[in-house]
Amino acid sequence: MHANNGTVRHAPASARVHGLRRRMLARGCALALLVALPAVHAQADDARPWLDTSLSFEERAAALVSRMTLEEKAAQMQNDSPAIERLGLPAYDWWNEALHGVARAGGATVFPQAIGMAASFDVPLMDQVSAAISDEARAKHHDFLRKGEHGRYQGLTFWSPNINIFRDPRWGRGQETYGEDPFLTTRMGVSFVRGLQGMDPQTGQPLDPKYRKLDATAKHFAVHSGPEADRHTFDVHPSKQDLYDTYLPAFESLVKEADVYAVMGAYNRVYGESASGSKFLLLDTLRRDWGFDGYVMSDCWAIVDIWKNHKIVETPEEAAALAVKNGTELNCGSTYADHLPVAVKKGLISEAELDDALTRLFVARMELGMFDPPEQVRWAQVPYSVNQSAEHDALARKMAQESLVLLKNDGVLPLSKDIRRLAVVGPTADDTMALLGNYYGTPADPVTILRGIREAAPGVDVVYARGVDLVEGRDDPAATPLIEPQYLRPEAGSTERGLRGEYFRNKDLSGTPVLVRVDQQIAFRWDRGSPTDNLMARGEAGPDNAVPNDGFSIRWTGQLLPPVSGRYRIEAAANDGMRLYVDGKLVLDHWEDAERLRADSVSLDLEAGRAYDIRLDYYENERDAAVRLAWDRPGAKPPFETALEAANSADAVVFVGGLTGDVEGEEMKVDYPGFAGGDRTDIRLPATQQKLLEAVHATGKPVVMVLTTGSALGIDWARRNVPGILVAWYPGQRGGTAVGEALFGDYNPGGRLPVTFYSADEKLPPFDDYAMKERTYRYFTGQPLFPFGHGLSYTSFGYSGLKLDRKRAGAGDEVTVSVTVKNQGKRAGDEVVQLYLAPVKPQRERALKELRGFQRVHLQPGESRTVTFSIVPERDLRVYDEAAGRYTVDPGRYEVQVGASSADIRASVPLEVATR
């Protein structure tokens, strides 16, 4: 088990779940079971022993596999496994996402992005969040089943968490991780997996001894963190010390402690082998050394890379055979289905080897209860009402609060609610994308930072101006103000506000709409999921949520009511097709697919007091969907000038900027200055925003900077000149509420940086170099802009009485560390007490220091608390010895450091370690 303070306590192997599965599913077990079941073949075709709950899951799975043809077996080893009607086997798609909430499956609670949750340094809170996510996942799955739906993002096998090490701030997918430190990543990852799979966070035991709640997937195994553009081709050769000390520990812990049921291979090669077909990684390390006995899957289309890009083999059938032989049972893609039968016929792999792999996959599905009566499965009873419940919304708010990191405060914060006027400027203040990051669901009522500020101080006059685009050269539809509801009505004479929306189950607006409703504004964004709810309005998408995930269309009609006479610029933006009509005339026409949100506009002279018929047609083909209707009214000033006017008119300014998932993310196809393919080529604040920030500062008004980001930013100028800086990350559906409360003092921020913030001019190691030297706080010898673990509070804390229960320890001895922490200020607040271990005179090159314990404590003014940690040298001081080919504990003196960050050490004591 693991203690809530972040200290590791491994569960004994005998206590880990599903012992029968572990005994039965050694390599070759499937073949043995098939041989042992001759009676199955002799039974009538309508006999289905795989539905017999008196048999073991392994026996049932083997019986089912034995009835399949070679081609059927291969098809069942791909993510979108088809139905086999003659066996009564329904279709199943293994592809589901739950990085920070159930993703791409319609309405779901959206928690802060993973990097933000890591910033909370709060394992018990992560226990609650992951349990809530798994509740929603189970409820949604069974709701889909009741409707006869078996598609992507509707299952029980989730491809989360991402436990790669965020070694370089330029990686666009670093936002998906728990930061740069293996220990923090481990603790957050173990908690997340246990919550998803239905395990008690204290004991590590399954809450149901028979059925798993969900399957979690540890990804991407291994040594994977960019560059995104090269991930299908590069070959990583880290030192074995970096491999075992940095890149593998979190994966090992998730296997041994959390019993993670699935592991996803990466795209890249490691030591010349494809990570999704590596004997060293999958057979030797994962299964033999760590005892993993779940299933391994490839990243999507990574098996194609084996022959097409890595050129390890020449043909797809060779790639498929190699991957299965080396331990990858499930293929995201179609290589297995298309080419494994050919591989068997060519003698590249035996059908028995496919049987073994496929049996593992069906055991997994059976242990989730997919083949048993729902009334027998505890998790099938989770009510749908948990989805987007008030309790989960409150939990999202709590996690958003705890994720906030106060980087700097020269007394400007908290803001007074007695100020007359507050200017909010910047490109992410009123942008829902700034809340979401990537891999997200659809929140019912997302609170932007602008809204959160207004709600936190209703007596303050809050003026808003976006000011600039997110980045230079980006065609940014979000820059144009939406057409407000009061200027739209669904039909002549109506007192309702908005436009009449007709939703169709096809792309050509044909037939009878499955949903008709009035939408107050046209500002929708759906991330590869169902438009059952949207980002701007509540509402079910017709009977039984009848609007499909892809291939739908919408027609909005009504009247436009211009408030003043003059020349208007009306803008429509869509991904994919859109057409705009005004008074029956087609004025914009882009009726084709688009890779991203694309905007176009028309300028029209409109008269106040007159109603203009307006119609917007839209269709969505596949994947991401978005549509907006906006305008620039007559006499509108340039956005930059408007922002400066707002700042000059106010008593204080909140600048909200940084990044969104539109510019940093996974293998993106668009590049901007400072960004390439989702990664960053420049860690500074984008130039457009820096110019606005400096201009606002020049007004002389007090400025507070709120950063939305998934990674570290080189904000040197802001650190020197801006008196208050708050990092919000991508804070989820209640992020705006959390930020507003923190700015006005209703919440005291206490989060900590899970990554090092480097100076803008810091010469970082080459991005494609996976050596850890000069990377992260563990190896960086320079001066960080803000160190790992840093975070301020509106109160202050003192440390005293650091002591060890022994000053000398052997490798296997447990050492108890205790320290007293006191709130010395006048406000209640949270302190994250951090324990680091540092070798005094290291015998080899190794980390300068390493986090080995943390605990977030809430203290009232004047309150003290004694915090304890456990150290076991063979666990906490081990280092990989390349010459010996194993971990070792070097004898000698170490420093036990306790403090408020990796650089803010408040107390330290020596520990002498003797390995003999």
TrEMBL record:
Instruction: Spell out the PROSITE patterns in the cross-references.
Output: PA14
Segment forming the signal sequence: 1-44
Kindly give the SMART domains that the UniProt entry links to this protein.
Fn3_like, PA14
Q: Per UniProt, what is one GO molecular function of this protein?
A: beta-glucosidase activity
Q: Which UniProt keywords apply?
A: Hydrolase, Signal
Q: Which domain of life is it from?
A: Bacteria
- A biological-process GO annotation: arabinan catabolic process
Q: Domain PA14 spans what residues?
A: 494-647
UniProt record similarity statement = Belongs to the glycosyl hydrolase 3 family.
Q: What is this protein called?
A: Beta-D-glucoside glucohydrolase
Q: Which species does this protein come from?
A: Pseudoxanthomonas suwonensis (strain 11-1)
